[in-house]
Every structure is written in C-alpha cells, then in structure tokens.
Amino acid sequence: MSLWEYANPVKFMALSGRILPWTAWLSGISLVIGLVWGFFYTPDDFRQGSTVKIIYLHVPSALMAINVWMMMLVTSLVWIIRRHHVSALAAKAAAPIGVAMTLIALVTGAIWGQPMWGTWWAWDPRLTSFLILFLFYLGYIALWAAIEDNDTAADLTSILCLVGSVFAILSRYAVNFWNQGLHQGASLSLDTEKNVADVFYQPLLFCIAGFVLLFVALVLLRTRTEIRARRTSALFARERMG
Amino acid sequence: MMPDLGKYADAVLGAYAASIVLLIGIVVLSVWQSRRAKAALEEMEKRRNG
Fold first, then answer.
1. What's the whole-model pTM score?
2. ipTM, 2 dp
3. Contact A171, A126 (CB under 8 A)
4. Which of residues 203-232 of A touch B (CB under 8 A)?
5. Chain B neighbors of A236, CB-CB under 8 A
C-alpha cells in the first residue's frame, strides 16, 4: 500500500471519515485537560504573575501558525510535482485554520506584551515576521477566491506558498538570526536547555497536543468539504452541458 | 473555583476570551461549510439520479 493511494478522493474520503471523529474527540479532551489544568491549577510565575497562563494559548497557536504553513508548503509541492488534486485542496483547506492560529498568537502576544513589555506591539523581528505571515495567509485565501479555474488557482497559490515559507521560517528563527528585539527565545526547543518549569510544561504539552489534533480534525473536515464542493461543481457543469 | 489572577486579571481573561472565540469561530465555520457542501452534493446527486 502506498501513501499516494490516498490522493484518490474516494479513498481519502473513506479514511478521513474514519479518523475524523477520533481526532476531534481527542483534541477536545486534550484541550480541556490542558486549559483547565493550566488556568486553574498552576501557580503564578514569580516575574510574570498570572500572565504566565497566557502561555497555554500563545505557544501552541504560534507553533501551529508556522507549522500549518509548512503543511501547506508540503501539500503545495505535492501538487506542483505530482498534480494530486487532494493535496491542493488540503492546502486550501488549511489556510483559514492558519489564519485563526496566527491571529490567536498575535492577539495573545499583544495582550501579554502590554503589561510585561509596556507595549501592545513592537517592530521586533519575530513579531514583524509573524504579522507578514498573517498577511500571507490572507493573500493566499484571496488568491484562491480570485481565480475561477481551480488548477490555475492551485498553481499560483502553490507558488505564493513557496514564497511565504520564507516568512514562516523567519517567524520561527528570527530571534536567532537577529539577536535583538523584545521577544524572548523559543519557549520550547529540542536542545537540552529547559526554558519552561515542569509545573507549566506539563499542561502546556496537553495544550499543544490539543491544538495539533484540532488542526488535524479541522483540516480533514475542510478537505472533505472542498472535495464535495469540487464534485458538486463538476456535476453541475456536466448537467449544464447535457 | 476561580483562581486569583491579581492585577493581570483583565489581560489573562481577555486573552482566553479572544482565543476561545476564535477557536469556536473556526470550528463552527468549518462545520457549517461542511454541512452545506454535503447537502448541496446530495441534492445534486438526487437530481441526477432521479
């Protein structure tokens, strides 16, 4: 069995229909555990006070904002190279979820920044690259909406996705590239240094799992919607011709 | 029981409220679009077969 079999819309619909309820439920459970644990049962930070509780929304949403674009990049490349329609539709389906994630990261960051930095916004490398990533998401959605021919829209949005990937990567590594600005380094990294105390880290892991699973559930649901809409358009066109 | 959020209560509650509204918004929008697309396809297939 090959992964490419799921580029077939019928097989994709069958598999996604089975996976979707599980991911939706697991996402809900993880989010409830993580957010309730983090909000009600973690102490205040000695420096940030209760604003540390914003970490449970800000870090997972920022992580997803970048990774949703990376998923769109992979599926766009699959479209460009192999011309599988399901992959182009999956990229299209993911973009509004990316918008929501980026907006949550920007809003929670601004709300946290006001009491901690004394400002809602600063033209810091990470914040600025995140804002540009948000604008790329909007541009990507607008481009899909503006072009009538689906294949042409998929081609052009895939190219836009390639260009926008620069800002997705910059959003992640801007702090390392330019050692300046207000934003601190990554809260989570694969190096051995621990940046978040265990008492905050454990509920944070549940929240991250919840956001990842929510994205999987939503992208499956939205891709199924796109496949159905494409099928309806094809049948409608056939009806008009006949 | 509501934890004591001290002087940052507005900021913390504001961040949670905004995030929950956005999360519920994208879920509701996705489910609504999914139902609409499913109904439209079923209608089209019924018309085609019937």
1. 0.92
2. 0.94
3. yes
4. 214, 218, 221-222, 224-226, 228-229, 231-232
5. 44
